[in-house]
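In this supplementary section we document a worked example of the pipeline. Step one takes a protein sequence of length 300 as its only input; no multiple sequence alignment statistics are reported here. Step two produces a three-dimensional model, which step three serialises into structure tokens for compact storage. The input and output of this example are shown verbatim.
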Amino acid sequence: MNNEQREETTAKKTTVKRLLIFLAISFVPFYIIIPVMWSYFGEPIFVCENAAVANYVVGVFCMMIPSCAHLLTRLFTKEGFKNTYLGLNCKGRMGYYTASVAVPLAYSFIALFLLWAIYGGGMTMPEAFPNVNLQSIGVFLMQISCTVIFFFPGFGEEWGWRGYMMPKLMELMPKPFAVIVGGIIWGLWHAPLTVAGHNFGTDYPGYPFVGIGFMCLLCVCMNAFLTLITEKTKSIYPAAFAHAVNNNMSCAILISIFGSEALTEKADTLPVIESFIPYIGILAVVGIVSFVLLIRKENT
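The serialised model returned by step three reads:
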């Protein structure tokens, strides 16, 4: 083994060490907090009467854990603060900033219409969406404005996953594998939430393993898009915006703004995990397109 190979091996070992420290700091507190809350409330925290409290704790505190892990890993390992993805890097890249808002909005609306088309029971569009008027549009715009608040917890996850984990994985393996592995890791980080009823509830066949699998699939698809806009801009802010819009303008929120009472009731009767199928379908398309754009060779 020559000096160059030794240096490369040493660099990879250092990267693996830093990645493992980051993952330990990201996972361990999260895997403790959710079971403790569950024990305190005595039932799955996202399907109990205190679900609002659980959402507050997760949204304000838990989503910041990956960013804290990023910061602490750099300090503990004396890595320094180069390549932190904290620059805006807007020049010539505004298309990716626009996509960070437009793409989550687009796939949320498409998922809403697919939900109506598949499960609407023959309702016409005017019957399903009678609330498309100035009032509902005003509510929609107000909801978008609230995304500014959701930016901060979105940043909390993104500076960890896309700002630290993904660059490290891409040092260790080809991009296609890094996207898949990173998405699965991200999905497994959510596992305590899934077990506690977040997103899918607890009343579905194969609980909780089917839900964990669904979450990993969602995270792989989402990871492709978020990694794409992060790598193309070398900035974490587009991914943080996209994460915020995804969480704040979901299909469930859109149906409450524009959907009729009949459509809302129809959606409420579906098993929660089944209602996610249209969303998973359209997000898979977004993930595949993002995956192709991410791994193709740069022209410049």
